[in-house]
Records
---
Amino acid sequence: MVSLARRLALFAPLGLAVVLTNYFVDPGNFFGTDARETRMARELLAGRTVETSFDFDEVALQKRLALGRRRAPDVLVLGSSHAMMLFAKAFPDREVTNASVSAASLEDLIGLFELYEERGLRPKVLFLSIDVWALNGALRNPSRSLEPELQAGLRRLGQKGSLEGGRGTQWLLLASPAYFQTSLFQLAASAARLSQTGHRNTIHAPKSVRHPDGSVEWTPLLADRTPEEVEAIATRGVAPSYVRQPPDPERVRLLGAFLDDLGRRGCRVILWLPPYHPAAYPSFSAAEGAGLPRSEAKIRALALTRGIPVLGSYDPSQSPVVGADFIDDSHMRRRPANALVARQMAEAGTDLDAPKPFPEVTR
């Protein structure tokens, strides 16, 4: 018995490390408050820009912003960090709200739209940026601040419960190995961001600027990279798993159900495929699993049968864009991104006030 107790005692530090890591990293924002996000939302709703670092709950911020908005936007932009820089310049003479969050999955998009729907803020047009991981489930924002809205959205689409099986009792997550793995992923991602910008201390992390419309300007240490530096980043890496994995049929059906539901609600939808850096796309698209081209084909097929326009392509040669338009292998600079979308809208002849569905387009 004593021997067993000693053996168990050896594992106590590991267990404590799991609990402390899960509590203090808390990627799902289960144990903290949203006081910081509330302060940020107050400033943004008052029409002031806010400087942000990497360590806050973007989803909680979007929830606070939606709760404080009094009028539905003409255009609601939903997507991942690939769409964060879009603002009214891409949609002239329109009131635009950008509610994109980093690593947004299909679940996040459903929950975010449900948030605006429940608040009576349904936009005239939903500009929906779809990333490859939306169809393979390999990546998702770690926050669960919109879990109630996600559940409501899934019920509306005929899904029972969370696609991840629910989050379980909150405090049990402290000892959860799965949540510990997510916490470690969050730490690694934060370290990678800081490493890319040359800063190691989160207190002195470089600041991005978030505007009242929700759009983002990248931190200068990212935005000021030279085209040569960006190309080196785009060519040196191996395609990440969330780019390699092929689309999952269940998730393709879920996206179709979401698009059908948006149509039933009378919300006009434009799909946007954000391009990858020209030096990164060839290896990314040819990687085992061919997630990028196969996912794009599925998205285009879904859109075609529903009369929904598809702007752009993951393939940069179809956009077109050049390496100088990017800050890394997949994120565009603010000005080129907005000019690109405005150009794509004009070339497609998209009339945001048109009563009929837009034609499906490839550029």
Note: Residues 162-169, 196-205, 358-363 have pLDDT under 50 and may be disordered.
---
Amino acid sequence: MERTLFILKPDAVRRNLIGPIITRIENKGFKIVNCRMELLSLGMASQHYDEHKDKDFFSSLVAFMTSGPVLLLCVEAPDAIKQGRIFISSIRADFSIDKTENVIHASDSNLSAKREISMFFPSNILTSEAYVMAHATHQ
């Protein structure tokens, strides 16, 4: 099993797309290990997109990501990073308005996934066994 980070961006939250997107995430076989809704600070958004700091779209991207709440999801699946990148292309195709307001982010590499998960979920990430046990007790 591998973990990655999905972020449902402010446009997804604003447009009430959380339910449909989470349904598709779970139907695709990703298990949600941890999640929370948060309004990102300028510092957190800037840190998250640090690799783009020298690009002309950096300021508008940070402004967009801090324009409303986001839903942060740590998900788990076999080959989650590669499959997550493929998966978000269909989500974006179905729901995106434009190149910036593209509803979802997914980590693009193992290194990015580890950095992003530790940034947004620094402690108390459930193990897959704890997730299975917690999920089984709620059904």
Note: The longest strand covers residues 31-38.
---
Amino acid sequence: MSADPDIAAVEAVLDGDDEAFEQLVLRYQKPILGLILRMCGDPGEAPDIAQKVFLKTYSKLRTFKRRSSFKTWLYSIAMNLCRNELRRRKRWGYTQQIEDTDPGVEPEAEDGLIGDEHKRLLAEGVELLPPMQKAVLVLRIYHELSFQEIGGTLGITENSAKVNFHHAVRRLKEELKKR
């Protein structure tokens, strides 16, 4: 058995213990739902997309090569499904009103420090970022992934993740100054 609880759970699932997968779902359901809400912005669709993430994770578990952490692999599946959803919306002309999509999983540092108006302006600014910058920013700030994990999740280098984060923060500051 592995010392990493995620790897131990994956090994248990591969050995036929479906309850171990339930533990993984319980551990990651809120962070994955939060990621989907921040990336896609539709509270009505987010639970369905999250369910697809876990179904795909379960069905592809045997392909998990352990080159990265389970968390990184799971987040990459979620990000790919978010990208697919955003492409589908664009193709069909779907527009989402920007609203405060609070998933209830924000870092404690944000709690009580930013007023509702600032949260709204910040959410609007994040929505205006190019997709890669938005993804890097969301994964770094809201999900506290390292740049190495972000790189693995998005299929980019660690340095590229740092550069995208820097540009996202700069653009966000510029956008907030305008408002």
Note: Residues 107-179 form a domain with the Arc Repressor Mutant, subunit A fold (CATH 1.10.10.10).
---
Amino acid sequence: MSGTVAPPGFEPFHSSPFLDHLGGVHRATRDRGPVFGIEVRPQHANTMGGAHGGFLMAMVDLATGQGARALLGHDDGYRTLSATTDFLAPASVGDWIEAVPSIDRAGRRTVFASCRLTVDDLLIVRASLVLATVGA
């Protein structure tokens, strides 16, 4: 870890080897549920020096799957079936990104969810996902 100083309320978060490979993911709990954060590092950058789209999608996927567990209040796992993503603004190396998931509709086997990535108050990514409940 490169010495990321997360904002107050964020704690390091670990859930998988892939997440550990990304490095530096943090989690906080706010009024509406979990928020995931990470500092964009040089290894997360594309050839133009901004956060790579694949890295941003990984944060969306992580936040939505882990967020669904917290927001729905159970330990089921979730597999992403589909994701529609709009990249609205770039993020740069050194930016702190926050990922805020929400549940739009939840059934027994399928969850429709959304996720917003922001830098400060700027919306940089919005995504809609369909998740399958694993084991349902």
Note: Strands lie at 11-12, 26-30, 33-39, 77-87, 96-106, 110-119, 122-134.
